Amino acid sequence: MSRDIFDAIPSWAVFLLTCVVILGALEFGYRLARWRKKAVTTDQNAPIGVATGAILGLVSFLLAFTFGIAASHYDARKATVLEEANAIGTAHLRADFLPEAQKAEAAALLRDYTQLRLSAALARVNRQEYDEVVRRSEEIHGKLWRLVVSNAAADPTPVSALLVSAVNDVIDLHSKRITHGVHNRIPMAIWLGLYAVSCVGIASAAYRISQSANKRSDMLPALTFAFAAVMTLIADLDDPRHGFLLNDQAPLQATLTIFDAGN
Known about the structure:
Blueprint: H1 4-8, H2 11-36, H3 42-94, H4 100-123, H5 127-154, H6 158-183, H7 188-213, H8 220-238, H9 250-262
């Protein structure tokens, strides 16, 4: 998996961890302001306010940028589930042109394949189980490919060519789904940069408030909650295996229903 720490902890832990980081930044800004113990005039305050506003603007930009990446990854995974279900359904329909024995074998393989993919998605498998799902999927690919190729070699017709193409699409969608579901993640460098800039912005805001009012603001807990909620939402969108925003597997469930109805 491509994203180390966020693959190992659940969404609620991401929220709590972010709260701790933001609270630490707030406390640092407040204590820094108290340590300086300066009398701050309006003229002295103005440059600090401008700098704080600029930093918080940059934080907002980075949050929007990162959210856009996570949302695009979520949409790509959702679209790939539909594409895979359509590819399996097409292969199943074209398998009707096979001889009866091969037709039954192809239908059984495609059903097992659909059940395997669906079970893995709904069960939220761990890394070891995921590797086993990939191995079994590729094993079914091999059996399907040998079946349709042998049929095409024995009866080279346009129909057999279409069946070979359909099975090839199923295999290609397997690779595409792995790419979108595992490898296309927000890079850790972006996460580190986002947290670092956010901490600087939050500390600057706390420093500015503490110098102006000489006390902690009652709104700081709300600010902490808001930042932690947004960070957790981004992490949840980008995570295909944990959290509350998992992709809907309805297309694969509908495909499996079709297989069961045909039995």
